[in-house]
Amino acid sequence: WESPDGRPIRQRLLVVANRLPVSAVRKDKDSWLLEINAGGLVSALLVKDFEARWIGWAGVNVPDEVGQKALTKALAEKRCIPVFLDEEIVHQYYNGYCNNILWPLFHYLGLPQEDRLATTRSFQSQFAAYKKANQMFADVVNKHYVEGDVVWCHDYHLMFLPKCLKERNSKMKVGWFLHTPFPSSEIHKTLPSRSELLNAVIAADLVGFHTYDYARHFVSACTRILGIEATPEGVEDQGRLTRVAAFPIGIDSERFIRALGVPQVQKHMKELKERFDGRKVMLGVDRLDMIKGIPQKLLAFEKFLEEKPSWHDKVVLLQIAVPTRTDVPEYQKLSSQVHEIVGRINGRFGTLTAVPIHHLDRSLDFQALCALYAVTDVALVTSLRDGMNLVSYEFVACQDSKKGVLILSEFAGAAQSLGAGAILVNPWNVTEVAAAIEQALIMPAEEREKRHQHNFEHVSSHTAQQWAEFFVSELNDTVIEAQERIRR
Ligand code: G6P
């Protein structure tokens, strides 16, 4: 990508995701306070060779035109473009089809009971809302698209988007990346709208997943459900190829490593060390979501305390459970369940001066989080299924001096990259996780060092920036190859 005089051209990129990477709070009739949530993808797109715009929902309901105009203007300064979704669409599309149907299904938790029959009204109206919402995203993309742009669609919220975009402009370069697992084709088969969704996704030029297994499941679903051909590159339907490949995401590891040198973070670390002096620190950081296996983690910790009384008072589990999707009933039930288990364990094993579990129902700011990662002896990631799980990467990035141990679910995508350094567990097997906790707590320094080194090398050499560059360059190549094939 060079101009005629040899200067590199920044690739124009439209990133489309359900949620914009900002928190928007309305200050006034026509003013908004915005804060950028700097995840890996954001840093990758803002820093690197992309001229990127981000299209998505700002997570707030803005019914009035004055508010919409003001928010659009404020977001433009952050290179973000809003899609306005009203409350009813959010209810049916986001809470309903996305988070009550696709999310649990893609994580092997099945379809909700009342929607098992495709004929129920709620399933049909939620799917209609899903398609309508995807069309609304497409309309905004079309408004901002300039010939030659790369359009990169993200996640399970927008599986219909590639089709909407290609129907309008078959020349548009469209990629789609899934941040969750793609389940076995036998699971996907249970979804009433299984074929419509697959057909919509394969309208893209390039389809990407975190792991090779997810890509393989997707290809099987296409061959078994749609009856189309699998090729070494992906799937082929009536002579049109859709490339399917694995692109494992990473984090901006430098950002975490740099943070550890900041005085405020060091102050936090010192406070935490003093606070938990004499006790080993175990840490869980999760969104409060059923896929994260928080109840299973707590039960394993309870079993460990039951079986190893000598550890009472010598270990503490800090569990940060960030509330999420709180309008969905399943998430409300989970919250009560977790509180009940924490209460029971603290009641059983606590003393007048200390409790074994500190449970927080909120997020931490970046600096406090880095400090916590850095002072942790053992991180516990027990997802029942997880697309990748970047908490495990963040922990590793912050552990260069301590060389703490990572206990990692074999059902997280990260198990495929950090498996050799972590202790891998089946989170459903409480006895196995309890034994892993003990193994991690008593692991000799030499072994910890070796395992950490393995993980640290991976995390620092597979970054979010490289991931984004790789996906976009593969998308450009895929389109060029397809054009050449047509010419031949
Ligand atoms: C997962 C999804 C993301 C989503 C995030 C937070 O990581 O893959 O697309 O943004 O959860 O969930 P929320 O529903 O709050 O956007």
Commentary on this structure:
This protein is of the alpha/beta class and 488 residues long. It has helices at 40-47, 65-76, 87-106, 121-144, 161-168, 185-188, 194-201, 212-226, 253-259, 263-275, 294-307, 329-349, 366-375, 391-397, 415-418, 430-441, 445-461, 464-487; strands spanning 11-19, 22-28, 31-36, 50-57, 80-82, 150-154, 173-177, 206-209, 229-230, 234-237, 240-246, 280-287, 315-322, 357-360, 378-381, 405-409, 423-425. The strands form three sheets. It has a nine-stranded mixed beta sheet, sandwiched between helices. Strands 14-13-12-15-16-17 form a six-stranded parallel beta sheet, sandwiched between helices. Strands 2-3 form a two-stranded antiparallel ribbon. Helix 11 links the parallel strand 12 and strand 13 (315-322). The mean pLDDT is 94. It binds 6-O-phosphono-alpha-D-glucopyranose. Its EC number is 2.4.1.15. Keywords: Glycosyltransferase, Transferase.
Helix content: 40-55%
Uncertain stretches of 5 or more adjacent residues: none
- Alpha carbon gap, first and last residue: 24 Å
Summing up helix and strand content along with how strands pair, one would put the structural category as alpha/beta
